């Protein structure tokens, strides 16, 4: 089966990416990862998805809405996930340097 429609577009990309931003807030994702996501989404077409994602994250942040209660999940998305991305980037950089 091949998806012909972009993921998260059943109700429109804007709404889908705003919801993804909200979920990132709810799961307590690190703001550094949020900025990386926004940057990544903005570079890809359609470029406005980065703005939708950022708005979805910022609105509940400003309103101080509730985040997930499970401390283990909060800590995972705040610290562990950031370390995973850092290690991924370092590994890719090392592989680029070793092949040249």
From TrEMBL:
<protein>
    <submittedName>
        <fullName>Glycosyltransferase</fullName>
    </submittedName>
</protein>
<dbReference type="GO" id="GO:0016740">
    <property type="term" value="F:transferase activity"/>
</dbReference>
<keyword id="KW-0808">Transferase</keyword>
